[in-house]
Amino acid sequence: MNHSLLDLVGNTPLVQAQKLIQNPNVKLYFKMEGHNPGGSVKDRAAFNMINEALKRGEINKDTQLIEPTSGNTGIALAMIASVFGLSIELVMPENATKERVQTMRAYGAKVRLTSSDVGIEGARDYVEEKVKAGGYYMFNQFANEDNWKAHYKTTGPEIWQATAGKVTHFVSSMGTTGTIMGTSTYLKEQNEAIQLVGVQPTDDSKIPGIRKWPKAYLPKIFNPSKVDQIIEVSEDEARVMAKRLAKEEGIFSGMSSGGATAAALKLCETLDEGMVVSIICDRGDRYLSSDLFD
């Protein structure tokens, strides 16, 4: 039984919605990404980005890694860097929850906080300046093909197998867009008819993990032709649904999972029949110091 922690990344369970869904002709399943060892869907991309860069010889134990993050990717990179014995600096806005910062530091990462006024875009700019000045290697999750390929290799095949090919719709929050790009590419190869649904916040909403990027910051890995439909959700809808998930389904997760679930339920109401799979991105204990569950 010589298992590495890295063997635990992926193969997360699918759980069927029991109470939230109102349409009797549609089955809704949640892909439980909080079951990854680092507690979120980002373990998949972090492992693939680090592993592939090591294989190509782009990085080694002497490389100073740096990456901007709003949270889950940073935790995943910190965890996987610790397993490989790599040093990493993570840069995030100062309004990130305390748990995120503490978790990254616990894994041995250096954490730098940037002004919350400029958000994740400011953290991205800071890192790009450091990389330009030399001496740092950035994975750049927003433009890194190994981000979406992680989901092409794992998330897509897992959903296809677990639903015995019966999945009709896949719903995913869009941040870096890696999850939806990779899963879409795989599922469309199996069955063109499967609908890929992206979730974005309404214009005035701030939902951690779900973004509507300004054009200059749009992830380079994003290909709009791989998304069939975009459903917008408000911050209020995402908050309410995160609480309902915990109270009614026993699923404790963050606001982006609430947003994806709100979108999935809107979708389910419009369908005559189908099997919908929606991503539960992470676990709710990352948000206890925020006001999400107050």
UniProtKB/TrEMBL annotation:
<dbReference type="InterPro" id="IPR036052">
    <property type="entry name" value="TrpB-like_PALP_sf"/>
</dbReference>
<feature type="binding site">
    <location>
        <begin position="175"/>
        <end position="179"/>
    </location>
    <ligand>
        <name>pyridoxal 5'-phosphate</name>
    </ligand>
</feature>
<feature type="domain" description="Tryptophan synthase beta chain-like PALP">
    <location>
        <begin position="7"/>
        <end position="282"/>
    </location>
</feature>
<protein>
    <recommendedName>
        <fullName>Cysteine synthase</fullName>
        <ecNumber>2.5.1.47</ecNumber>
    </recommendedName>
</protein>
<dbReference type="InterPro" id="IPR001926">
    <property type="entry name" value="TrpB-like_PALP"/>
</dbReference>
<comment type="similarity">
    <text>Belongs to the cysteine synthase/cystathionine beta-synthase family.</text>
</comment>
<dbReference type="InterPro" id="IPR005858">
    <property type="entry name" value="CysM"/>
</dbReference>
<dbReference type="Pfam" id="PF00291">
    <property type="entry name" value="PALP"/>
</dbReference>
<keyword id="KW-0663">Pyridoxal phosphate</keyword>
<keyword id="KW-0808">Transferase</keyword>
<dbReference type="InterPro" id="IPR005856">
    <property type="entry name" value="Cys_synth"/>
</dbReference>
<dbReference type="InterPro" id="IPR001216">
    <property type="entry name" value="P-phosphate_BS"/>
</dbReference>
<feature type="binding site">
    <location>
        <position position="72"/>
    </location>
    <ligand>
        <name>pyridoxal 5'-phosphate</name>
    </ligand>
</feature>
<comment type="pathway">
    <text>Amino-acid biosynthesis; L-cysteine biosynthesis; L-cysteine from L-serine: step 2/2.</text>
</comment>
<keyword id="KW-0198">Cysteine biosynthesis</keyword>
<keyword id="KW-0028">Amino-acid biosynthesis</keyword>
<dbReference type="GO" id="GO:0006535">
    <property type="term" value="P:cysteine biosynthetic process from serine"/>
</dbReference>
<feature type="modified residue" description="N6-(pyridoxal phosphate)lysine">
    <location>
        <position position="42"/>
    </location>
</feature>
<feature type="binding site">
    <location>
        <position position="256"/>
    </location>
    <ligand>
        <name>pyridoxal 5'-phosphate</name>
    </ligand>
</feature>
<dbReference type="InterPro" id="IPR050214">
    <property type="entry name" value="Cys_Synth/Cystath_Beta-Synth"/>
</dbReference>
<dbReference type="GO" id="GO:0004124">
    <property type="term" value="F:cysteine synthase activity"/>
</dbReference>
